[in-house]
């Protein structure tokens, strides 16, 4: 690939990556993945936008994870993204818990906020599910060392969701959606 083409591939807006064909994702993985990981880390450090985090995560999982080398998943992707994703989930759970405590049937603003948080959490769970499905669908043998961040991250999310849903199930009938998704 020429330097000009490599530069243009790394400058593609996130929204456009979602429409790339599979072969282009495979070919541009070495150029685009580092940019996406830098964007993810930058958003993590400098932004409170959960949506932005999840958009980057979903793009990586849906478009580029299928083309990553199974032997290097941990070092190239999981170890860099999953700890931040778990922290993001914990932040959302904290906000959900705080908002749920103030919920009354008359407070439409808090109901809307809770709905938005839950929808965002379900998207995050979808991205984690994509990671698990990818590893499970692999025809090759996977050594736990090559995916060590994935099981601990998934178990943390499941446990946190269960504890939260058990504690706050009386407050909202929508909460079981989160537990079923996790």
UniProtKB/TrEMBL annotation:
It comes from the Eukaryota. InterPro entries: DUF4487 (IPR027902). This is Uncharacterized protein. It comes from Pipistrellus kuhlii (Kuhl's pipistrelle).
């Amino acid at each position: 690939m020429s330097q000009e083409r490599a530069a243009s591939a790394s400058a593609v807006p996130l929204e456009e990556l979602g429409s790339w064909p599979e072969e282009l994702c495979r070919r541009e993985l070495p150029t685009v993945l580092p940019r996406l990981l830098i964007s993810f880390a930058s958003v993590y450090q400098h932004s409170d936008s959960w949506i932005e985090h999840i958009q980057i995560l979903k793009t990586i999982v849906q478009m580029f994870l299928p083309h990553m080398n199974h032997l290097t998943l941990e070092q190239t992707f999981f170890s860099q993204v999953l700890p931040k994703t778990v922290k993001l989930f914990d932040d959302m759970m904290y906000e959900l818990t705080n908002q749920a405590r103030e919920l009354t049937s008359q407070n439409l603003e808090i109901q809307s906020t809770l709905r938005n948080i839950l929808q965002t959490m379900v998207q995050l769970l979808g991205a984690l599910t994509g990671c698990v499905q990818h590893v499970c669908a692999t025809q090759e043998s996977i050594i736990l060392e090559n995916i060590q961040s994935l099981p601990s991250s998934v178990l943390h999310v499941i446990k946190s969701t269960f504890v939260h849903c058990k504690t706050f199930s009386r407050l909202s009938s929508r909460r079981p959606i989160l537990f079923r998704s996790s």
